[in-house]
Amino acid sequence: MPPHRRAAGSALFDHPTFIYMHALYSKALLRLVLLLGMSILIGYLCVSRSYHRVSLFEQEDFSWQLRKAHNGDDATNPLNAKVDGTRLIMEYVLSGSTPYSFASASLFFMDRSGKPALFDWSRFDKISFEARCFPAGTIRVGLTTFDDKLSKPDQLHTYRPPSAYIKCNQDGDRAELDLAHLTIPEWWLTLNKINPSDQGYSLAKVAQIEVGTTNASRVGIPSRIEIASIEMHERKYGYLYFLAAFLVLVWAGFGIWFVKQYAVALADNLHARMQKDLPLVAYQQLALEPHREREKSAILRLLATRYADSELDLETVVSETGVNRNKVNDILKAEMGYTFIGYLNKLRLTEASRLLVENSTASIAEIAYSVGYKNSSYFNKLFKEEYECTPKAFRELCKKEARKPAP
């Protein structure tokens, strides 16, 4: 690699802006990755825990009475029903002697004293279970809920029976029902003279859960229905509220921290630039010694003493030093790393930065004019390119730094 390119690359990485901002961005990136990972982990835990399940038979104070029903003497054999552990088992044979043959088994809820009870299931949104049928067919699973306007205690036919139909086979597939979207059978609405569109029901007063046959059930053969692992699904929104609050707080905190750190890094960067540029202001002491040759010394001396002259240009330097135009630029590029215009602007902007700090009463336009700029807008543009902020912002940042207590 050519020497001048190596020098340019080294200068880039040694530049104060690169050093301070690279440190800030590295620290911010590390915190961003950690915060993102923590947010994903907390989010996963909160969302997963918000989906709560509880076994029907493991609920606190859960007590029940097994009941069975069929239409008259329709069952050719006695209807057998039992609960084995957490399985509700119903065995039956439908004779098909009537148009509406059915058989059902239910868990009728009781309180501790053995009296009928109404359970509040309003906090649950779903119920799931494992259904197994021999032979395969369609079964009905439903609830019996108390209607304050219609239902009468001890008369279950006046309770609303929201239910759903599911396919069932010997493999024992798991089924899931949405408790908010069950259907009231048409026969019950007709029996109680209720408009068919009235499909409402309340989960706040549930009397029983029932499993039964349907019109599609096989007749004349021994049949068996098993309902196992009944679980109630509840959504705990407290976890989601916590997650939302956590994300807002930590990400807002990260944003505030980054803005503050950016301001500190910018102030440190400006301070470092001012310290680095001091040798240019004090050229007479630091710049002449390394450049003994007459032409180099003449050019550098002229620029160091006349940079504030707004009429100073390359032709003036050529005329007063006797060095041709190309050689002036070559000398400045080799010794200082700038072209004529770049070095002249560097001297002027360095002096301007000093005046902005030390002469707080002078306006921006006055400082621009004092260092050789006739146009304050052009001065502002060059200053912002050099220090990455306006002269006004530079002055304010330096004031804030000056007010900070010494460590």
UniProtKB/TrEMBL annotation:
Q: Name one GO molecular function term.
A: DNA-binding transcription factor activity
Q: Domain of life, per the record?
A: Bacteria
UniProt domain HTH araC/xylS-type: residue ranges: 297-397
The coiled-coil regions, if any, are: none
Keywords, A to Z, come to: DNA-binding, Membrane, Transcription, Transcription regulation, Transmembrane, Transmembrane helix
One Pfam match: HTH_18
Gene3D superfamilies attached here? Answer: Homeodomain-like (1.10.10.60)
Which protein, by its recorded name, is this?
Helix-turn-helix domain-containing protein
Q: Which organism is it from?
A: Pseudoduganella rivuli
